[in-house]
Design goal:
Radius of gyration of chain A: 24 Å
Helix content of chain A: 40-55%
Order of helices and strands of chain A: HHHHHHHHHHEEHHHEEHEHE
Shape of chain A: flat
Structural class of chain B: alpha/beta
Largest interface: A-B, 43 and 49 residues
Strand order of the largest sheet of chain A: 5-1-6
Strand content of chain B: 5-15%
Oligomer: heterodimer
Distance between the termini of chain A: 59 Å
Structural class of chain A: alpha+beta
Largest sheet of chain A: 3 strands, antiparallel
Number of helices of chain A: 15
Shape of chain B: globular
Radius of gyration of chain B: 18 Å
Strand order of the largest sheet of chain B: 3-2-1-10-7-6-5-4
Largest sheet of chain B: 8 strands, parallel
Number of strands of chain A: 6
Helix content of chain B: 25-40%
Order of helices and strands of chain B: HEHEHEHEHEHEHEEEHEHH
Number of strands of chain B: 10
């Protein structure tokens, strides 16, 4: 069993750790010596095809990176515009976290992104880092919010966390305006559309392919980073789209989560605190009512 | 060659004919396709373990009496990480809920954590190390899954671009099936992959395949793929699974050979997720004609001939 575990671990390492794989492919004898590989394992791995190993590893890299990057499309897009950034992103695959649960792995990838920026591994300019940090904070907060929402549903169910029908006129007159649970707000230096445009219309599902194929132009991001910021307040609400119960005890339900979102012009953090569940739409001062009405209609704000 | 004690279970399985593996929520729509006269005679699908995930669509197919085969990618059928009992139990409930006559999955590592998971977390199945010692461990994995299942388990060789170990995949897989009383699902494209990795070429792709325990083969897959040339003397070509592409001539060649050697074959699945409906129907027709012409199982031939007649009516 121990021998199988050792060989399995070596196989996994060769599939996910690019540096180890390169050393193995270049000189497997030296690699075995450096890694202290036993004779039986050397024999078992002696005939591994370098080209076949590379093809398998490349497929896995693209698949796993696509999955990881979905939660951070704008952040990874900015990090991945240059070759140094692409390498820094894929370096995560050699982390032991790659073998952990989805939540642990996503959290670890966020920490990795933070470290990449802190250590300057992506060769970003200071302007780009200033642009990136609030975007990263927003994407990371959304990921955490989704994980916390799932955990809440697993513990207490989804009551009050799914979307109902659009609010009725009567309810809008009678009920008070409040921030709903799993609500997020953050200030971005530009609207998301500006950043998406700079990143070749990047989206969660195409983020890694665009990075891997070198489709992102650093000069477009630099232009945005160096220009006068036009801040927006990005508000999001995590809601449960569907819960599929498990039948076997011990298996968590499948919880599908999505985020409603809207952009408000300028920095509106203080204003949002006014929606404290004490006033109806009619009772709000005119500018607040104007701001709140579409958010209530879009169910980003709650009526309680 | 086969262990006679296991065959009654496999022999008793129903002939399902020629079906298709499809994805719910994307085209071609499984429900609409299965409703066509020339559509698949069964639907194979992958999905999360929770039986209710596909509720409406599965209920519709069941009410239309379309047989269903759940083909998960969430069981460790090899490797040192055990399958959590609740996780396997959920798979059992899913199989039961869909009324699947058998359960089949690629033999690979799908997850490495303690809770269970899906192969896409690792990019895809990680194929087994092909040694006697890893075979012993794989027996434990398969036995722990089978112990909780109400239906026979079929083992499928995963596609590969390289192998690790001193045994051939089919020698290793046969031993695993025999030691665990399991059936086999053979994917013709995956066989091409293994044969190329073993150093064979398009000219001798079926050489050595008689090592497969043909009596245990219950289901076959056929799907699109691509051959990638590489600058490596050990592997001049690599086979890459690509269900959205047409079926390679090399795959048809292996398929024909397998048809002519598998007396208890019950089902042929055309894997066509992401293929346009207009392309799926001719693929099903091609597969049916080849099965009708080549299968050794008279009951399957009768079933498929009836499917051809229905399609032509």
């Amino acid at each position: 069993m121990q021998q199988v575990a050792t060989q399995e671990a070596l196989l996994f390492r060769l599939l996910f750790d690019e540096e180890a794989r390169e050393r193995f492919v270049q000189n497997r004898g030296a690699f075995f010596d450096e890694e202290g590989v036993d004779d039986d394992t050397r024999r078992v791995f002696a005939q591994v095809s370098a080209a076949g190993l590379e093809a398998d590893a490349a497929y896995r890299r693209d698949y796993v990176m696509s999955t990881l990057c979905r939660a951070f499309p704008l952040t990874v897009g900015m990090v991945g515009t240059r070759p140094e950034g692409r390498r820094a992103l894929t370096a995560f695959l050699s982390s032991p976290s790659i073998f952990k649960s989805t939540r642990e792995r996503n959290d670890a990838f966020a920490v990795h992104l933070e470290r990449v920026v802190d250590l300057g591994s992506a060769a970003l300019t200071a302007d780009e880092v200033r642009l990136l940090l609030p975007v990263f904070a927003t994407e990371r907060a959304r990921l955490r919010n989704a994980a916390e929402l799932r955990a809440h549903v697993e513990r207490q169910g989804a009551a009050g966390l799914t979307l109902g029908p659009a609010p009725k006129t009567g309810d809008k007159k009678r009920l008070k305006v409040a921030l709903p649970p799993f609500f997020l707000a953050g200030v971005l230096p530009f609207g998301q559309r500006v950043l998406q445009n700079a990143l070749d219309d990047i989206r969660p599902e195409n983020a890694w392919p665009k990075i891997a194929h070198g489709h992102l132009a650093p000069e477009r991001v630099q232009t945005v980073a160096r220009s006068l910021h036009l801040p927006v307040t990005f508000v999001q609400r995590g809601v449960v789209r569907r819960v599929v119960s498990s039948q076997a005890p011990g298996v968590p339900p499948l919880v599908e989560v999505t985020h409603l979102s809207a952009e408000l012009p300028g920095q509106q953090g203080d204003v949002l605190q006014e929606f404290d569940g004490k006033r109806t739409l009619q009772e709000l001062p005119h500018p607040l009512k104007t701001l709140a009405t579409p958010l209530v209609d879009g169910q980003l704000l709650a009526l309680v | 060659m086969a262990d006679a004690s296991v065959l009654p279970d496999l022999l008793a399985l129903p002939e399902l004919g020629v079906g298709a593996s499809l994805s719910f929520g994307v085209q071609p729509d499984p429900v609409a396709l299965a409703a066509r006269r020339d559509g698949p005679s069964f639907v194979e699908y992958a999905a999360p373990v929770q039986p209710g995930f596909l509720g409406g669509a599965l209920a519709r197919l069941k009410s239309d009496k379309v047989p269903l085969l759940y083909h998960p990618s969430c069981l460790n059928l090899c490797g040192t990480k055990a399958n959590p009992a609740p996780w396997v139990d959920e798979v059992r409930r899913h199989v039961q809920s869909a009324g699947c006559p058998w359960l089949a999955q690629d033999v690979g590592v799908c997850f490495t954590n303690d809770e269970g998971g899906y192969s896409n977390q690792l990019g895809y199945f990680i194929a087994p190390v092909l040694t006697q010692a890893s075979l012993d461990v794989a027996v434990d994995r398969v036995v722990e899954v089978k112990a909780q299942m109400d239906v026979p388990l079929l083992l499928e060789p995963p596609p590969v671009t390289f192998t690790v170990g001193d045994m051939g995949m089919f020698e290793w897989l046969n031993a695993l099936a025999q030691r665990t009383d399991s059936g086999l699902l053979i994917d013709a494209g995956h066989v091409v992959a293994h044969q190329l990795v073993a150093g064979r070429t398009s000219e001798n792709l079926t050489d050595g395949l008689d090592v497969i325990d043909f009596d245990r083969v219950v289901e076959m897959h056929i799907a699109g793929g691509a051959l990638r040339p590489v600058d490596d003397d050990d592997a001049p070509l690599l086979y890459l699974d690509a269900h959205d592409l047409p079926i390679l001539p090399e795959t048809w060649q292996v398929f024909r050979f397998l048809l002519e050697h598998t007396p208890h074959l019950k089902a042929v699945c055309v894997e066509c997720e992401g293929v346009l409906t207009d392309s799926v129907i001719p693929m099903l027709d091609q597969a049916r004609r080849r099965v009708s012409h080549g299968t050794l199982n008279a009951n399957l031939r009768d079933k498929v001939d009836a499917e051809l007649a229905r399609a032509a009516a």
